[in-house]
Amino acid sequence: MKTMLGLFGTLAFSACVSTSSKNSNSELIDKQYAAYNSKDIDRFMSFFASSAKICTVPADICMEGESQIRAHFSEFFSKFETLDAKVSKRIIDQDYVLDWEQLSAVAKNGKAVKLSGISVYRVERGKIASLTIFLNHKE
């Protein structure tokens, strides 16, 4: 927890980030959201490094590398008629993008799903190297 607080403090108070780095990282993440919302697995995967790692908390789901990420999200996308992830707040600090997001979705069985959470992206060399998603299941 102390490490997370340190990261949030760094993200919230850092003022020495170049505008072009902030913009390119923000644009990369926005494009990833568009691919996610359209359930386009090939385009979605194009934004991740081949050795990327994704973890969700508290679900304790972790996947590493292109094949695990592709398999997980291919199955996930197939379960939903619609996905609509939106960012309500964003903080960018160097290689990190922190988003407060809301997800509205409709499953193939017609059930509506609403979640919110914080996603912490680390971008390296123009690709998402890691993503940690902190889900809030209280909505």
Give the key terms.
single chain; about 140 residues; alpha+beta; Nuclear Transport Factor 2, Chain: A; six-stranded mixed β-sheet; 4 helices; globular; disordered N terminus
Low-confidence stretches: 1-5, 7-18
User: What portion of the residues fall into strands of 2 or more residues?
Assistant: over 45%
CATH fold-level name: Nuclear Transport Factor 2, Chain: A
Estimated helix fraction: 25-40%
General description of the model:
This protein is an alpha+beta fold. Helix content is 35%, strand content 45%. The model is unreliable at 1-5 and 7-18 (pLDDT under 50). The protein starts with a helix and ends with a strand. The chain has helices at residues 2-13, 19-37, 41-45, 66-78; strands at 48-57, 61-64, 80-93, 96-107, 112-124, 127-136. It is globular and about 40 Å long. The longest helix is centred in the first third of the chain and has 19 residues, at 19-37. The chain has a single domain (2-136), classed as Nuclear Transport Factor 2, Chain: A (Roll). A hairpin with a 3-residue loop joins strand 1 (48-57) and strand 2. The protein has a six-stranded mixed beta sheet. The chain has four helices and six strands; from the N terminus they run αααββαββββ.
In short:
This protein has a single domain (2-136), classed as Nuclear Transport Factor 2, Chain: A, CATH 3.10.450.50. It contains 4 helices and 6 strands; from the N terminus they run H-H-H-E-E-H-E-E-E-E.
